[in-house]
From TrEMBL:
Pfam families: DctQ
Function: Part of the tripartite ATP-independent periplasmic (TRAP) transport system.
Keywords: Cell inner membrane, Cell membrane, Membrane, Transmembrane, Transmembrane helix, Transport
Lineage: Bacteria, Pseudomonadati, Pseudomonadota, Gammaproteobacteria, Oceanospirillales
Domain (Tripartite ATP-independent periplasmic transporters DctQ component): residue spans on this chain: 29-149
Single GO MF annotation: transmembrane transporter activity
Protein name: TRAP transporter small permease protein
Main location: membrane
Provenance organism: Vreelandella sedimenti
Protein family membership: Belongs to the TRAP transporter small permease family.
InterPro entries registered for this protein in UniProt: DctQ, TRAP_DctQ
Length: 163
């Protein structure tokens, strides 16, 4: 029962994360195209187009990172898992899973603390608190931890598994 709940939550969480990341990517493309149009056709682009595109690309990557990890899409070398005997390969999978959880949770905590520490500063182009765009980092790290937790210490998919 717990495994079916985990797999259902993961099946819901993956498309939601990718849809949000895709929407942010579309906003980023629109901001860049507007900046290009304003710069080369209208004669001058507002400063906020460069700044918002930087913030949007970071948010896009952070929102998609957990889903990409759970689908085995991050670049990694899985040769060692295939060469080790099964008990050692399982131990390596547990180690990788725990390490991913630890790094994701630590990244969420540190980036959250940092985002709050710069709340008194504003961005140069948008004029908003720096905390607002920086909150995409802890959210992304939390999503990575969430996806890793739901995926469990199972072996990650490889390119050969998808062929």
């Amino acid at each position: 029962m717990f495994n079916t709940l985990r797999s259902r939550l993961l099946a819901i969480s993956r498309p939601v994360s990718l849809t949000l990341a895709g929407a942010l990517l579309c906003l980023n493309v629109a901001a860049i195209l507007f900046g290009v149009f304003a710069r080369y056709i209208a004669g001058g682009a507002p400063i906020w187009t460069d700044e918002i595109s930087r913030f949007l690309i970071i948010a896009t990557v952070m929102l998609a990172a957990g889903t990409v990890w759970s689908e085995g899409g991050h670049m990694r070398v899985g040769l060692l898992e295939k060469l080790l005997p099964t008990p050692f390969a399982r131990l390596l999978n547990v180690y990788q899973w725990l390490l991913t959880l630890l790094i994701a949770a630590g990244g969420a905590w540190i980036s959250y603390r940092y985002a709050l520490s710069v709340s008194m500063f504003t961005t140069s182009g948008l004029g908003i608190s720096r905390t607002v765009p920086l909150l995409s980092l802890p959210v992304g790290f939390l999503l990575l931890a969430w996806h890793a937790l739901l995926y469990g210490p199972a072996p990650l998919k490889t390119v050969e598994d998808t062929l």
